[in-house]
Amino acid sequence: MRIHIHIGNIISCLLVGVCMLSAHAAIRMPVIFSDHMVLQQKQPVPIWGQASAGEQITVTFAGQTQHAVAGTDGQWRIILTPLPASENAHELVVAGTNTLTYKDVLVGEVWLASGQSNMAMAMKSARRGPVLDADAEIAAAHWLKLRLFQAPTESDKTPEDNCWQSCTPEAVRYFSAVAYFFARELHTTLNVPVGIINASLGGSAIEPWTPPHGRLYTAYVKPLIPYRIRGMIWYQGESNPDLSYCDDQSTLVNELRNAWGEGEFPFYYVQIAPAYDFAPNSLPLLWQSQLMALSMIPNCYMAASGDNGVNLHPPDKCKIGRRLARIALTLTYKKTKEEYSAPVYRSFKVGDGKIRITFTHAKGLHSSDAGPLIWFTIAGKDHVFHPAKAVVDGEDVLVSSVITPVPVAVRFAWDKLAEPNLVNDAGLPAFAFRTDDWPVATAEIPPSHATLTIPRGIAATDLDAARPLLEKAPAQTLQRGGREYARVAWAVAGDTLLMRAHVWDARVSAAQPSWQGASLELYLSSAGTKRVRQIIFNLQGPGHDPVVNGYEMGTPVTEAVPGVWRITQEKDGVYLLEAALPMSFFGIPPHAETFLLDAAVVATPFRGQRPELVWLYSPQSAFCNNSWFAQFK
What's the CA gap between 617 and 600, in Å, rounded? Predict the structure, then answer.
């Protein structure tokens, strides 16, 4: 039983929002109170609820007894004096007309976890797949004094079923992975009970979380206040990729702290990982804004994620949870002197044709892969940035280029796909930065919105038979900045889409020999819908079979990509892709008259470092650079 209720002349009660069928209303408690909860140690702890106006309320816990009288609105509150962490569990008893008894209550550390999909992502996410080493981590998740609470969501029909749970494999399976790994690290290091509250929602922007009128704040967070917490961890920003994010985040934190009334509780957040899913420069601007927030928000810090893969939803959530915990253990608990921060840009100085970059948190600067430092670019007065040579000099980095003999500015990791190899002695990757304040364009090339007429009724569906037909079909050109880099021809045979694509200028970069290969990305949907299915053909050069993956709105689909395809490298940097794909995979009805067709070609790094050509746009999904409304004849 979650709650134990002793009733005299009362028929029944529910935990939240139900009145008693008697002359007096039963005590009603917020959903955050349940068996197995954790109360914050060493701080005053509010206990509150509703009852009949004027009802006498007595709260007993761990040798303390506190009294309150419900006001005219039925609200009441008591404050438990600060308690030490508990070795053994206690009962929390709330008595009035009825008595509520909460069992197995511990005292320790309590944290709130919030944000969007990366915080919401569970150990076994049905939508995004499991986190790294999920099965082993779940099987090992036996921590009876680590407690988990999932805040009721807007779709929960029975929010009273959301209760505190001891950490077991079953409980943690669908709980926030980042929140769990953070809490586990605190629990094992501090050796006290830990309670972690998850209130997050995939796809959410920052504004709805902001008090006092944000929709998600009202639905998810407000019902938790004033439950005493030590601090908050935050993983959000993917939906707000711009330079003003620091202002929005500062407002969020200030308003949350005001609502809680606990003062400047710790607020630790996560740098958004590099990913394809952003317009040019928008992610670096977000990184800059996230870094700016450090000087705007008291008692906050950011965990680095620049080495966690090029993925909007990195599967290695343990790395992020542990980095957040390291920040808390150092700054909040003073339990460790380990380096908790990635190198942070501090200043620059020009001299002798070079620019010296100074950092904080720079002890032991080095290259993580023993190779040359990458992702440094340098510019002169013409504002044109070129790849640069970067060399560690103590706790500084010297940046130069023979192309730019009189440099004025440096940018580092200023690309949405940047995975820098500059790290400190703690192995933490340096945060992205720029020394200039020049205007940065974030707009994509607008889509052509041209109408592409596709021949219908072609009988051939095998690639050899389709080749002569496609060679004669009208071809559509893909362009970047007015420069052609691919040409694609289309035809339809029944419900099969035939495609022939020539890709050129996907050559190995002379500056970075490890960059090679290309990918052709196709996005198709029924015209007028918001469902976009994507196929990515990764062309990895001679001797490597293509890797073909399917996605829906950027999320991997579970079914295998159907159809047949053939990829030929005709010469260095020039590929020919031929494919026959069922239109049903893209959700296009067999007799559709029109559909939306997007295509992009991306020169993708073979080692996952940097693309040679990346220009993505779509009016629906912000992915591709050319869109056509295809019609059949």
Answer: 8
